[in-house]
Amino acid sequence: xxxxxxxxxxxxxxxxxxxxxxxxxxxxxxxxxPRALRYxxxxxxxxxxxxxxxxxxxxxxxxxxxAVLDAMRDAVGRYGAxxxxxxxxxxxxxASIELERELADLHGTEAALVFTSGYVANQAALGTLCGRLxxxxxxxxxxxxxxxxxxxxxxxxxxxxxGHNDVADLERKLxxxxxxxxxxxxxxxxxxxxxxxxxxxxxxxxARKYGALTYLDEVHAVGMYGPRGAGVxxxxxxxxxxxxxxxxxxxxxxxxxxxxxxxxxxIDFVRSHAGSFIFTxxxxxxxxxxxxxxxxxxxxAEGQALRARHQERAQTLMRRLAERGLPVMPSQSxxxxxxxxxxxxxxxVSDLLLDQHRIYVQPINxxxxxxxxxxxxxxxTPLHSDADIDHLVRALESAWDALKLKRLATAAAQ
Length: 414
Fold this sequence. Notes:
By secondary structure, the chain is α/β, with parallel strands linked by helices. It has helices at about 5-15, 65-80, 85-90, 95-105, 120-130, 145-155, 165-175, 200-210, 230-235, 265-275, 275-280, 285-300, 300-325, 345-355, 385-400, and strands at about 25-30, 35-40, 50-55, 110-115, 135-140, 160, 185-190, 215, 245-250, 260, 335-340, 360, 365, 375-380. The longest helix has 23 residues, at about 300-325.
């Protein structure tokens, strides 16, 4: 077999579909977020130009927060660069313990456990829990993230997929399984491609009725919702109905890593059995120190102000887009998706915005979203100004006109 030819043909198929991913080479500048420098594609001779980033998951700009930067610099000076290896062999760094205490306090749980990413946290925790509970049946929301699907698949547990945010369908499927069998119900709070929010309390009540463990992914909600930034479960006052909360340190907290929080027994069980935790080098102490600082900031009054400003920015952008007939999709959260509906056109809009207007937003295509629902996914931050929003709306109108894309009827036109 000619392996290179196979790979090249497969890549060409992606290009023909408009799904080939081109990474923009950017350089974030401390103190300039949401601005960044864009370097020419292919390492050309042109100087980099400043652009405005509209698709960062650093939702609150904590990756640029002075307290976080100071904590990381201090940690490098005190501890050095790396963690020294796995926690299992090289010992657990004190900074990791402090971070896990902050996370347990944030969620009001007995314990927490940190992983190298949110993806790994889901894969490890679900793979371990569903795989080691005897004869376990797992019930997964139809729109769950790939990392959750990966963990469930790794567990080899019996899998049932219930309709997205469909409480009645979950109950029907739970009722079909023997009551005395171990069960896990896994779902997210904020679904990042549509921006919708799960009815956490209702799902948890049904799970409890049938004796199931509840597993909630709050990756796109921690730092963002609730009085102290613990997520939608805190906002909705249902945290105690959830057995395992999974989150990330790489989005609203602005650094990197993932974690789970829950009872001491659950956390110790995963710590003791999850291979992707046991055999993976721990996060560097500078990262854990920075994350712990970000959590403390977002628990405070400053965090409350950032969250309020952030929600206002998202609502303002959605309103402005709708006023111009641009097809902004319904969203219950801070995610602002704009429907294009075609992979090639979605990339063309993204390219026009970047090349002509110095606006960076990545096209979202299959398999991240279903075919025919390709979109641009905007994530406004508290640091995007009214002028930034004005510029974005004008640029989108220009791109829509240039590509002859359909607009929606506006209230003014009706």
